[in-house]
Amino acid sequence: MRSETAPAIRLEDYQPPVYRIEKVHLTVKLDPAETEVVATLSVARQADVQAGTPLVLDGDELSLRELKLNGEVLPDDGYTVSPGKLEIHAPPSKSFDLKITTQINPEANTKLMGLYRSSGTYCTQCEAEGFRRITYFLDRPDVLAIYTTRVEAPKTDCPVLLANGNLMEKGDIDGTDRHYALWHDPHPKPAYLFALVAGNLAQVPNRFTTASDKKVDLNIYVEHGNEGLCSWAMDSLKRSMKWDEDVFGREYDLDVFNIVAVSDFNMGAMENKGLNIFNDKYVLADPETATDQDYANIEAVIAHEYFHNWTGNRITCRDWFQLCLKEGLTVFRDQEFTSDMRSRPVKRITDVRLLKTHQFPEDAGPLAHPVRPRVYHEINNFYTATVYEKGAEVVRMLKTVLGDEGFHRGLDLYFDRHDGEATTIEAFLTCFEDTNGTDLSQFALWYEQAGTPVVSVASAYDADRQTYSLSLSQEIPPVPGQRSSKPAVIPLRFGLLGPDGKDMHATSASGINISGDVLLMEKSRHEITFSGVSSQPVLSLLRAFSAPVRIDQKFATADLQFLAARDNDPFNRWQAVQSLAMQELVRLTGTIRHGELGAPADGVVSVFGAVLNDQNLDPALKALALTLPSEADIAQEIGKNVDPDAILAARKQLRQAIARQFHGALRAAALEFAPRGDYSPDAETAGKRALSNRAAYYYAVSNTEDAAQFTWDRFSSADNMTDRLAGLMLLVHDHMPGETAALDLYLSRHEKTSLAMDKWFMVQATAPGDGTLATIKSLFSHPLYDATNPNRVRALLQSFATGNATQFARPDGAGFELVAESVLEIDKRNPQVASRLLTSFRSWRALDANRCALAESTLMKISSCEDLSRDSRDIIDRTLQ
Ligand code: BES
Ligand code: ZN
Asked: Which of 305, 322, 835 to mutate to test the pocket of ligand 1 (most atoms within 8 A of CB)?
């Protein structure tokens, strides 16, 4: 018998809670297997609710020890405990105290939700529904309470005792080897923001003074020995705090801000009030073990979690359907932070690549859902690229549509009006309507409709009349479960490029609303005419990727080449190079599939040469422009009947053609742009390193005499992780001489550093070639493999399933099998990690007939399993739908 699908939770069924919980006093007596939690809840019945209405609390894997109401033990017939619920049948009065004593087992908690242990440290993860694994509670985001938490533990095991808010008291517990700490958080918050940490951790202190001169103690807690790896994270935190004051006018609101790094964590990091808990990969860094990308990620994740203090914590979500209210907005904020700290165009290109590789396929497959879903079975499965990345794009469009000032007016009202509340997308949008005098009801469709709109473009120039006409139409392709769609508001930033590469200025335009350089599509079709256009322009549309849409436009190669060389919008310059490469890669893939050899067109290869030799291009942008569309991007562009082997071969052909034609310039660039002197993770230096490594990536397949030696030397003499990892990838992925020696060398250098070893597993799992499957199987029994550590599992399996298309989708089905078996095994321990891994099947229907059939039978096999978790059952049901 297959496991049951969990009941559907629907937005339309939302009901406010019948009781409030105004105050929570928790005493947590920590013990590895028998932790006692005493929760005293001040409960109040809502004004419009009948006396005697039952109080139904959530619970999960709790042992109830004692239950007292207003100090009296509740008789057995006064309540019912069932798995998942505690019902108090008839609470006696309008308000009362409920004292609940439960026992939990942190050591046995392999789901890493609720209270668990990571390398001996007690920690919690409560979002989305983990607090119910600590005590019985109204575990929903619209129940806001003030928490006081007393943590008790043995002094020697757990010298550090932390919880949310400010420390009130600390002391020994007389006559025992234990001590306690009492924390109080004055800000009402939902249970998902509760946190507690206890362990033997090192403290790295610092301090921040807010704009209104409030002194805030900052601390990062890490395992002993890692104190020296926190300076980048601390620096990022201070810059985040300052930036949020300067740009959004938001100050911090407690005396202390603590960050704890743990090595076992399902997600990246968590914004618990005053006590953020992080996956240690987003805290710890030094040049020896962290790449430039790691440094950039740490900066962004620290900022993201800090920014939640306003967008998420002080103003939270009414229900989990509103998740994008905090996540989309906070991702937008962290993107803006990074743009200001680093390079705006580089950040924009990076984010759009992420959106296109993760969100577009999600939106085009069986797991498609609106930015604000209307139904879910398991909320953990909705922390998706759509909620996060598309959610951020929608906020960005709001800013484009309203302009900077209008946008900030709306946000200021939002902070003002809803501070201390749990609210909705509607309330959020109303703030922008009220401050801008606009109607955003059509804009709101971005939250309601799944699927990526396609904007089709046709143009004509009339030299006699000096007019340029543009037909724009929009359509959302069919999405499972979505009957029809309405036209969305699509802001299209544009330019009409004249022959000199400068934007031309038409004297007038009709058929659409234009404000500045933005065309505002509001209908399904627009026929636009620009007058006073003195020569045939080249259209540069969707500049800076002003809307999350696909553009369907027939481009003459010459126009793309022109845009690639001359567009004054850096994003669209990059896009033009990508489009040229993409066209060619799709064509080559087709040729290879027909058993022909084919050769990349000179015109495309030479564009890469021109980029490489452009003296005016910023190195980081140049590195991005020289990056070919990924295999997954090409597969998506092809859309159906996909053969990953042909894609890999086509991509290799183009890479080799570029390498052979420009080997001299590539070798020179690899050397010239390698930064000298002490390592620095700043954006400019990192950009140079990226270009140097990008050039080396081509040079490695250049057929020159010294390519292999050159690659080996770069790897073996690297004095930082960025260069070392780049070198290792080339040696292993291109199966170059020294491949095995390089892996051994890396292993002996980094075997004691877990985060560096994740990379070692990842590199091997993503290597193309028939041998990879056997390698992965043997790595399962490597002494450093740990199936209970999410980072390690992701390094070996998630990276294989999402980053090794030819081996995952092997034509013999063995790649699918391997992942399926792993999913089933992991699912018993950690459903969240398992269900995430399972989403790697989401594009299975786009594969060729043979692979598609193999994927389907593998998925059916998973589906027929008994005891699948809710998480995995939900993903498998939707994937097969
Ligand atoms: N609130 C989330 C963490 C979270 C996600 C908890 C899912 C429970 C379930 C946090 O703010 C977050 O979004 N973290 C991201 C990283 C961020 C930089 C986008 C994550 O963990 O991946
Ligand atoms: Zn977040």
From this structure: 305
Under the phi-then-psi rule, with left for phi > 0, alpha for psi from -120 to 50, and beta for the rest, what region is 598? left
Q: Of the ligands numbered here, which is closest to the C-alpha atom of 268?
A: 1
Residue 514 forms beta bridges with which residues?
519
State the pLDDT at residue 6: 87
Residue 152 CB contacts under 8 Å (≥ 6 apart), including other chains: 27, 28, 29, 30, 161, 173, 178, 179, 180
Radius of gyration, CA atoms only, the chain = 28
Is any atom of ligand 1 closer than 6 Å to the C-beta of 268?
Answer: yes
Please state the atom number of ligand 1 nearest to the C-alpha of residue 300. Answer: 18
Determine the distance separating the centroid of ligand 2 and the alpha carbon of 589, expressed in angstroms. 38
Catalytic (active site) residue 223: no
Structure-token pair, residue 765: 């799992």
Identify the active-site residue in 223, 271, 299, 305.
Answer: 305
Tokens at 328, concatenated: 């989309």
Could you report the per-residue pLDDT of 177-208, keeping only the tens digit for each? 999 999 999 999 999 999 999 999 999 999 99
Q: Quick check: CB of 326 below 6 Å from ligand 1?
A: no
Express each pLDDT in 598-629 by its tens digit.
899 999 999 999 999 999 999 999 999 999 99
Q: Which two tokens stand for residue 560?
A: 């793309």
Contacts 24+ apart (CB under 8 A), 63-67: 63/102, 63/103, 63/104, 64/100, 64/101, 64/102, 64/136, 65/36, 65/101, 65/102, 65/103, 66/99, 66/100, 66/101, 67/98, 67/99, 67/100, 67/101
Mean pLDDT, the chain, rounded, equals 98
Ligand 1 neighbourhood includes 569 CB (under 6 angstroms):
no
Distance 327 CA to ligand 1 centre (A): 8
The answer to whether the CB of 127 is under 6 A from ligand 1 is: yes
Which tokens go with 675?
Answer: 């930064």
At residue 644, φ and ψ (nearest 5 deg) are -60, -30
Nearest-ligand number for the alpha carbon of 125: 1
Q: Based on the number of CB atoms within 10 Å of its own CB, is 72 exposed (0-12), middle (13-18) or buried (19 or more)? A: exposed
In short, whether 302's Cβ falls inside 6 Å of ligand 1 is no
Following CA atoms 36, 42, 48, 52 in sequence, which dihedral angle do they give, to the nearest 10 degrees? 60
Q: Answer yes or no: are the C-beta atoms of 196 and 124 closer than 8 Å.
A: yes
User: Which atom of ligand 1 is least distant from the CA of 301?
Assistant: 18
CA neighbor of 567 nearest in space, from 491, 479, 472, 503: 503
- Closest-approaching ligand to the CA atom of 141: 1
- Does residue 1 surpass a pLDDT of 50? no
CA distance 334 to 354: 15
Query: Terminus-to-terminus CA distance in the chain, angstroms?
Result: 19
| The Cα angle at residue 292 between residues 390 and 670, in degrees rounded to 5 | 115
C-alpha–C-alpha distance, residues 467 and 470, integer Å: 10
Cα separation of 252 and 456, whole Å?
46
Place of tokens 């139409």: 473
Using CB atoms within 10 Å of the CB of residue 294, give its burial: 0 to 12 exposed, 13 to 18 middle, 19+ buried. buried
CB of 827 sitting under 6 A from ligand 1: no
Q: How far apart are CA 132 and CA 170, in angstroms?
A: 27
> Do the beta carbons of residue 130 and residue 272 sit within 8 Å?
no
Q: What is the pLDDT of residue 484?
A: 86
| Residue to probe by mutation, ligand 1, list 189, 192, 270, most atoms within 8 Å of CB | 270
Say if residues 477 and 454 touch (Cβ distance below 8 Å). yes
Report the alpha-carbon distance of residue 18 to residue 56 in Å, rounded: 9
Q: 40-49: per-residue pLDDT in tens?
A: 999 999 999 9
- Which whole number is the average pLDDT over 700-725? 98
Task: Assess whether the previous peptide bond of 128 is cis (omega < 30° from 0).
Answer: yes
For atom 18 of ligand 1, which residue has the closest CA? Answer: 301
